[in-house]
Amino acid sequence: MAANKAIAAGENHLRSAEQNPDYIRGMQDFPQEFYxxxxxxxxxxxxxxxxxxxxxxxxNVAENQDFQHDQLSLQxxxxxxxxxxxxxxxxxxxxxxxxxxxxxK
Length: 105
Fold this sequence. Notes:
The protein is mainly α. Helices cover 83% and strands 0% of the residues. The protein has four helices and no strands. Helix 3 packs across helix 4. The longest helix has 50 residues. The N and C termini lie far apart (70 Å). The relative contact order is 0.05.
């Protein structure tokens, strides 16, 4: 499959690029959490889109976006738990009504 070969070639290129001495030296003065090609590209786009004017502002915007994403994920998890609890409470209430009805006879 051509797509699998292209993906494998891209992954090999990425692994070799990560071993580049310039890349490794650059890691020393760069926040570790942001030191990946994907993240650096993201920071550059934030600057290009005028969402930040400096790299430091881009860091701040990216951290804020990550925080908001984490908060949204937590809210979605809490909503799922609440919905599950509500469904179980409904089932329990129905079961209690049937039990009460059957014990009165």
